[in-house]
Structures are given as structure tokens and as C-alpha cells.
């Protein structure tokens, strides 16, 4: 049997935004596009987000809040919700990971895990 946690899959693509970054000022801007796929049998509403963003210096930023990009989408079975957001790091490499607080159609709360993904300036060997 599939658990609620297993019913949501999160996929990520990232991009370094060179024209808005200032390496001389330790400012590296990255965008990330998240696709949240509902593999379950019922709709699930995304209510909260929780991020841990770690740069190459080991500095961790924690971000928590309601929804994503100003929305709290309900994702129907066998559909996906996609959004793009961004973050600024002080180093050219970092890692993001976290979870979404979800609620099933039946009112059951659960977490959808966002697996760790890498943010990196292209061409770096770090």
C-alpha cells in the first residue's frame, strides 16, 4: 500500500543566473523549478514549505512559510504542479532540501520530502 508520503514525488531542475549574480560580492543567484507530482488516488493540498539551504561554507539558512510563490495549490491525482523560484548563495555551490506540508482530501496532514539537490555555477569542479 502506498503511504501518503509516497504519493507525492518532487523533481527539481536548477539554473545559475549569471547576469544577476556578483561573484566579486559573494552573490550567486540560482533559480530552481520544482515539479510536484501526485501519484496517489486523491487530491493533496500544499499548505507549507520548509527549506534548508546550505552553502559551501557550511552556513545554513532555514526558510519556512505558507505555500509556494504565494499559492497553496491543490494537486489532483495523476497531475503535477510546477513553479519556479530562486535563492541567493554567498558561495558558487550549495545544497537545498526540505519538505512540503501537505493535507489530503480526507484532512490527513503529511510531509512531502524534497530530496537534496545541488546548486552550482557551471564549470566548477567543487
Provide structural commentary.
- By secondary structure, the chain is mostly beta strands.
- The chain has one domain (5-118): ApaG domain (Immunoglobulin-like, Sandwich), CATH 2.60.40.1470.
- Helix content is 0%, strand content 60%.
- It has strands at residues 8-16, 28-38, 44-55, 60-66, 74-75, 80-89, 93-104, 109-120.
- Strands 3, 4, 5, 7 and 8 form a five-stranded antiparallel sheet that branches. A three-stranded antiparallel sheet has the order 1-2-6, with no helix packed on it.
- Strand 3 and strand 4 (60-66) form a beta hairpin.
- It is elongated and about 50 Å long.
- The model has no long low-confidence stretch (mean pLDDT 94).
- Main beta-sheet annotation: 5 strands, antiparallel
Percentage of residues in helical conformation: under 10%
Summarize the helix and strand pattern as letters. EEEEEEEE
Domain unit count? 1
Radius of gyration: 16 Å
CATH architecture: Sandwich
Quaternary state of the chains: single chain
Helices, by number, come to 0
**Which CATH class?**
Mainly Beta
User: What global shape is seen?
Assistant: elongated
Number of strands: 8
CATH superfamily: ApaG domain
Report low-confidence residues grouped into runs of 5 or more. Answer: none
Instruction: Tell me the CATH topology.
Output: Immunoglobulin-like
N-C termini distance = 41 Å
GO biological process, one term: error-free translesion synthesis
Pfam family, one: DUF525
Protein name: Protein ApaG
InterPro entries: ApaG_domain (IPR007474), ApaG_sf (IPR036767), Uncharacterised_ApaG (IPR023065)
